[in-house]
Amino acid sequence: MEELDVEPTTTNIPASEGNHLGFVWGPGDILVYDTIYKSSGSVGTCSSFIHEVRKDEDIYSPILRKLFNESHHIFVGLQTIREDLPNKNKKTQFVSISKNYRSVIRACMEELQQVADTELATQYGNQVSILLAIELIWNLCEVLFIDAAPGGSLLLHLLDWVRLHKADVDEKAQEVLQSESPTEHHGYWDVPGGSQTLTEFDVKWRHWHDMVDHSLQDNSFASDPNLELICKILMGDEDAILEQKDLLSTWYHFLVTRLLFSHPTVKPTELHYYAQSCLAMFDSRSAPEPLDSILLAAFEFDIHQVIKDCSIALNNWWFVAHLTDLLDHCNLLQSHNLHFGSNLREFLLLEYASGLFTHHSLWQLAVDYFDHCPEFGRVYLEQQIEHVPLDTERKALKVLRICEQRQMSEQVRSICKIMAKRALRNNRLGSALSWSIRAKDAAFATLISERFLQDYCARGTFSDLDLIDNLGPAMLLSDRLTFLGKYREFHKLYGENRFSDAATLLLSLMTAQIAPRSFWMTLLTDALPLLEQKEVRLPPKVNERNTWEPEMSSLYNLSVKPMTFQDEDVEVTKVELLRLALARNLAMAIVKEGTVAV
């Protein structure tokens, strides 16, 4: 297996010679631009280009997007494991969840490898290398920390780890097993099986070890230098290893091989010693590669160093966020808190989720990650959700539902106001009114209600009747909205020939004085045909002071108050007709009821 490249890629941003660069921080990226200012202090020309620098480019990969989606379901399932379960049961579930994470990684890796030969080979090839490294590290952490097998069993798990990450091991094993004599096959020793018990293996190993050591001591292999060299390497002879290290695969492959042939019952606490010595013998460089440092930290059982090194070396937060979350559920990180309030698990989940929020669809996954960050998750969600572009009404409803489910009242009002104003600009009065009602914005509901009334005056009909007919208690949000709803109810009563009920409602609307002044003439005009109906008689009641009751007085005042009209002659005529109709109706009521003149 070749050494994996986990170094992040860098890109140079071109700028005019000697010019300063300017930048603006965004929620998930930085906009960098060329300025007119030079380092010498003078002012010159600049480039017209703006460069977008994203901090998490992988979320825009269509294949890696599957990794984020699938792992989200695993993450949510992990959070549902009950704390009161016995440790043995929880361990089984944790190991299963770890394997699920790795299977998602491998599925994405295989899909990336299938397209690596296309014109996007460079881009996908780098992602394949990163996923190979991620799966290698995760598998080792699963063996050492999550499954945490005891000595003896640990080596068998490490053998599986090596075999799994040896690219051609399955093909070699199949070739050996299908041969006429598998034990005589040249690849037999490259893929040994692990079917015997630990006791059987230990007895056979000790016998084999003593036999090889005795053969080396009495020079039994002197006639075959290659066989003698192999035996020396397997017995841990450092000189032999240094001479032939170029023929070996990687230091961690050699580590497991050395443990298998020299220390098969190695204890977990002894791993760091062998890991350090193997790396030192295998690699003469002054500083190990990032992957080597991460694996060495794992063999040294330094979990926090593994997470720290991965955070630096890998190009996104997906790996460290999910691995840390799993390790935290295994109670392996409880002693490590950060100095600025949040623990390590929450810090990494917040960083990962914040990156998802910059994507046009993955932001929905981030909500669940914030939900499971008890200390700062809600604060981050409130801030991030305000940056989600409300491109369509469907998307706005999604965001609104998320906020309503979490009682984020301020964000709910903000979203509704934005959508109401947008709908009003597009002259979609029904949608604007619906959003303003959801926002409980009385002032904006009043404004939209007046627009409905203006449209009615201009066209003679109402739009969005379904909405107005079903306002219900929402019409109490503002006086103007109440008037709109009741005025529409008056029209329904009139259309059903319920003239008496319609007249009573119209009279109450006039006397309540909640209608805009510009609409008074419309109300008076609506009263004209009603006053001529035989069944409609306005109440001629008087009080103790021999004056009309307030309802009648207000109606009369409306008909005689001076008003400014656009078409003076027509409107004056309407007022005169109204006064005449009002007087006639009142006289008829007095005669009919046999009351005295007031």
Automatic annotation (TrEMBL):
One of its GO terms (biological process) is positive regulation of DNA-templated transcription. InterPro entries: Nucleoporin_Nup85. The keyword Transport applies. It comes from the Eukaryota. Keywords: Membrane, mRNA transport, Nuclear pore complex, Nucleus, Protein transport, Translocation, Transport. Belongs to the nucleoporin Nup85 family. This is Nuclear pore complex protein Nup85. It comes from Gadus morhua (Atlantic cod).
